[in-house]
Design brief:
Layout lengths: L2 H8 L8 H10 L26 H8 L4 E3 L14 E3 L4 E2 L2 E2 L7 E7 L2 E8 L6 E7 L16 E10 L2 E17 L2 E18 L2 E8 L5 H9 L1 E2 L3 E2 L2 E3 L1 E3 L2 E7 L3 E6 L6 E5 L12 H4 L8 E5 L2 E14 L2 E11 L5 E7 L4 H9 L1 E3 L2
Parallel strand pairs: 1-20
Antiparallel strand pairs: 2-15, 3-13, 4-12, 5-6, 6-7, 7-11, 8-9, 9-10, 10-11, 14-23, 16-17, 17-18, 18-22, 19-20, 20-21, 21-22
Length: 357
Amino acid sequence: MNTVHLLREAGPEGPALTADARNAARAALLAEIDGARPRRSRMPSRKVRWRIGIGVVAVAASWAAAVVIAAPDGPGRPADSVTLVDFHTPTFPLSLDPEPAGLRPAFDGSGDGATIAAYDDPSRENGFTIYVGEDEPEGNGPDDAAPGYEVLHVDEISLGDDDAEIVTYEREWCVEDDDMGCARIATRRFAWLSWERQDDQWVSILGHGDYADADELQEVADSLVDRPRRATLTAELAPQGWSVQFFKMGRVLTLVNDSFEQQTITVQVPLPEDVVPPEQLLGRLMGPTGSVIPVTVHGRPAHLVLTDSGYVVDGESMQQWFLQAQFEDGTVYELQVPDAFTQEQVVEFAEAVTYHP
């Protein structure tokens, strides 16, 4: 895995080792690119493949020593205990009626709500991404300055009382990756539609594969309805005073302590090929400080380990819990939770995590 490449592609702007950079890096290091597709966390002119794994293992490749964190200005301090309260993960404002056959959605967003919904078939070769925002997108689509960009045709359509244009184009696209970057480039076709659906709500749709087609894209646009959709991965409990920092790809959810943003909770659903057998956890985790504690989550065996987070605050090492558990259907998920949680609270929180792929 090329850590520097992933940090550049998926991490936020800003100086190294800020709280935002660490948190975004953690999520990025949980993943690799899952096929040549538009990136969901920004306008899709570049691709990012995500692959969920054990974050503490990936972090070890980047920082071999503990990171010293100065306490922020003001009264903020890391919590040494938490109170769990009811919690609601933000929603995406639109639904499709009818839902497209054979496609599954995944949502990206922050504490302000989801702004991106990506619908893909199992191969990820066919689908579309919907973007919602208050401002009109700049330029003639997201890729008008991309290598090999060429407009194939422009179709004028009607959406209710409004007229809009669908731009079908092709561009160079990385279709094979290696640790050094892109190994093979091919031409790929897309279709782009953007219009002001209602006051202060701009909707853009980018289609690829079978959906790089004006008729298909108009059908998607016509099926949009004002009915919020819950995120794919949600938490129904959270510590009091914490909020959503971000959620991505339907597989990563991060909560943050509003009083001390270095303190976070990460929930992730690894791809099946990245699931680590329980008997190998201690050998794969970075800095375990105890043995594996057997617990039960959703009526299934789960595995809890206390680990060194690698961060030091005011001379005190910060520890965290790592939990590997399963949803009722057997899908494996993982938590990284501060040691401000008791063992019982880790299990209680884990049982309040839901997954709707």
